[in-house]
Design brief:
Layout: E1 5-13, E2 16-21, E3 24-29, E4 41-45, E5 48-53, H1 55-72, H2 79-82
Antiparallel strand pairs: 1-2, 1-4, 2-3, 4-5
Length: about 110
């Protein structure tokens, strides 16, 4: 399993960016997201940016990662706050992973 890490662009170049994750600076491949500017937040996986994200989404992801880290260390964490977007809703598979009898019927074309 691969976990995405939000990082903020510090310096950008053609197909690459130097990004901050906490106190560390990483070289990130940006060929999948295109040109980025300093200050942009990216969701990164294994040294490559997969998505440009808002600062708010980056902060939510960072809070969730911090809560997971605390749990892994055996420390208390406010999981309801860190995963507020998951509270009170059933997890749902994407349509393409649903069994045929549960997939939504496509709208007929006019």
């Amino acid at each position: 399993m691969c976990i995405g890490i939000p990082m903020q662009v510090v310096e950008a170049g053609a197909g690459q960016a130097r990004c901050r994750s906490g106190a560390d600076i990483h070289s990130i491949d940006t060929s999948l997201v295109g040109d980025v500017a300093p200050g942009t937040w990216l969701m990164t996986f294994l040294g490559a940016a997969r998505e440009v994200m808002s600062a708010e989404a980056a902060q939510r992801s960072l809070a969730a990662l911090a809560a997971l880290d605390a749990v892994m260390r055996g420390e208390p964490a406010d999981l309801d706050a860190a995963f507020a977007d998951l509270i009170g809703r059933e997890p749902r598979l994407p349509d393409h992973l649903l069994p045929d009898h549960l997939r939504p019927t496509p709208e007929p074309e006019a």
